[in-house]
Amino acid sequence: MKPVLAITRRLPDAVEKRARESYDLRMQDGDEPLSRDQILDLCKDADAALVSVGDPIDAAFFDALPKKVGIVATFSVGTDHIDLGAAKAKGVIIGNTPGVLTDATADIAWLLILGAARRASEGEAEVRNATWSSWRPTHLMGTQVTGKKLGIIGMGRIGQAVAKRARGFDMDVHYFNRRQLPKDQEFGATYHSSIDELLPHCQFLSLHCPSTPETRGMVNTDFIAKLPNGAIIVNTARGDVVNDGDLIAALKSGKLTAAGLDVFAGEPNIEPAYRDLPNTFLLPHLGSATVETRNAMGFRALDNIDAFTQGKDVPFCV
Ligand code: DGY
C-alpha cells in the first residue's frame, strides 16, 4: 500500500505525476485556498502533508493534526505561514525548498527594479487602453538604472544573485547582512554592518530578508527617511516587512519615486491604495513562478516526503 499524502493545492503536472506514482493522494478538485479545517480534513488518514505559501499551518492546526502525520513539507523556502514552535512541540518535521528558486526570484527582483524605474505599469496601460497619443520628449520619463547605487538587505542566495545581475548594469552595490560575506560571494558589493549605515547609499533598495519578529514592519517612516530622496524600493521577500501605510505615504509625498512589489501583507487582499498609485509596479507573488523553478520546488518537497516515509533523514528541513 502506498503512503497517504495530503496536498493542499494543485501542483505542476510533472510534480503531481510523480506524487501520484508514489502516494495515495488526498487533494481538492479545484485550486482554492483551503481553511485550516479543510486542510485537517485532507490530513485525516495521511502520513504526510504538502502545503503551500499562505496555508494556515498554525498552532491550532498542529493541535488537531493526527499523530500519524509526521512531516509537513511546504512548497516554498519561506516558512512564515507555519508555526515552527508548535510543529517542534508536536514533533512534526517541517520540510522546505531552499536553493532552487534563487535565479527565478532574482530575475523578478530585477523586473521590479526596471518596471518601477521605467514606469512600466503606466506605459503598458497606455498601450493596452489605446490612450498612447504620440511619441513626445516628456512622455513617461523614468529613472535611469545603469550606474546607480543599489542597496540589498539580506545577502543570502537571492540577494547575491541580485548583486551579480547588478554588475551588468554597472551599479555600485551595497549590502547589509548579519555577517560580512567572503569576497567571492559579494560580487563587488560593499558591506555595511548596520541597516542605518546602508540606507543613505540606496538609490535603489531590494529587500531579501525573511519575515521575522525583528523585520516585520521594518520599512517604516523612520527607515524611509534615511534613504536618499527619490529612492526606489523593491520587495520580493515578504510583504509584512513593509509598513504599508508608511510606504504609501512616502510614495504619495514624492520622498520615494516608486516601489516594485511582488509580495504583500495579507496577500491576495492587498492594501487597496497600492492599486491607485501610478508609481507602483505590482505583481502577484510571481518570484518563483517559472515552470523550471516550480517543478524543482515540487520535486524538492517530494524528496523531503520520500525521505521521511522511507525512514531516512529529511534533506531540507528547518
Ligand atoms: C517562497 O518559496 O517562500 C517564495 O516566496 C515562493 O515564491
UniProtKB/TrEMBL annotation:
GO MF assignments: glyoxylate reductase (NADPH) activity; hydroxypyruvate reductase [NAD(P)H] activity; NAD binding
Protein name: Dihydrofolate reductase
Pfam family, one: 2-Hacid_dh
CC annotations in GO: cytosol
Signal peptide: none
Ranges for domain D-isomer specific 2-hydroxyacid dehydrogenase catalytic: 7-318
Family matches, as PROSITE patterns: D_2_HYDROXYACID_DH_1 (PS00065), D_2_HYDROXYACID_DH_2 (PS00670), D_2_HYDROXYACID_DH_3 (PS00671)
Highest taxon above the source species: Bacteria
Entry's family note: Belongs to the D-isomer specific 2-hydroxyacid dehydrogenase family.
